[in-house]
Amino acid sequence: QVQLVESGGGLVQAGGSLRLSCAASGSIFSVNTMDWYRQAPGKQRELVAGITSGGRTNYADSVKGRFTISRDNAKNTQYLQMNSLKPEDTAVYYCHAHVVVRGYEYSYWGQGTQVTVSS
After folding, report:
1. Residue 37 CB: number of other CB atoms within 10 A?
2. 106 falls in which pLDDT band (50, 70, 90)?
3. Rounded to a whole number, what is the largest CA-CA distance in the chain?
């Protein structure tokens, strides 16, 4: 079994910062791409940022220049540094990862962590 455990969400004022973490644990051979998604009330889940095992990153246009994704491969952990937060960043943020287990790649999701940005 593989688990993704997120931490770091909370309530922050507009213009503030938060750092999310997501650690993968279990019967892991390797972790390929890791991503952060978010889902606001009444909206579809959307990709926020992704990072490959080699460190290549991609971002949603709405967060470019404000959010930074990174990872520590030795710890199977990814991070999302969120700066200059806006009320529209309010959402449940989900960690997602493609994990190789016993020779096969599987998709796993974390339980989600709430981020609330007040105006």
Report:
1. 21
2. very high
3. 47
